[in-house]
Amino acid sequence: NKYDNDFQIDHRAFTKSGNLRKISINDAWEYFKAKERKLLSNHQTGSIYGRRKIDVESVFGGLKACLGFKRFSVRGLEKVKKEAGIALMAMNIRKLVAKVTNYN
Questions:
Q1: Any domain includes 3
Q2: What is the pLDDT of residue 52?
């Protein structure tokens, strides 16, 4: 609602340039958000998503942060598989070196 309690236009209803904001709601998006929220509140589904965050996404984060691997430099599925394999091998070697270094 763009009006406050005194029926004056709320200052937050304006953009930085002074125009009125236009707010639209995507009903399909809201439906799917509610559906996901319901699924995540279920204990079994929530545990599956919890494992996914730990197991998979940290690897990609490590590839991006530690190795600077943000995009593929080749085209084609086979070449991409090979480049991803090399990047993952580099990540594993890095982890192995860290483990050996801490062991000694």
A1: no
A2: 67
CA distance 81 to 78: 5
User: Rounded to whole angstroms, how far apart are CA atoms 13 and 79?
Assistant: 51
Q: Which two tokens stand for residue 78?
A: 């086979």
Per-residue buried b or exposed e for 28-39, using 16+ beta carbons within 10 Å of the residue's own CB: eeeeeeeeeeee
pLDDT band at 55 (very low <50, low <70, confident <90, very high): low
| 49 vs 65, more confident | 65
SS3 3: strand
Q: Mean pLDDT throughout 55-80?
A: 88
The pTM (predicted TM-score) of the whole model is 0.46
Give the three-state DSSP class for 90. helix
Domain membership of residue 66 as a residue range: 11-103
Domain count, the chain: 1
- 4 domain residue, yes or no: no
Would you say residue 2 lies in a domain? no
Q: Would you say residue 1 lies in a domain?
A: no
Question: Tokens in use for 63?
Answer: 């590839």
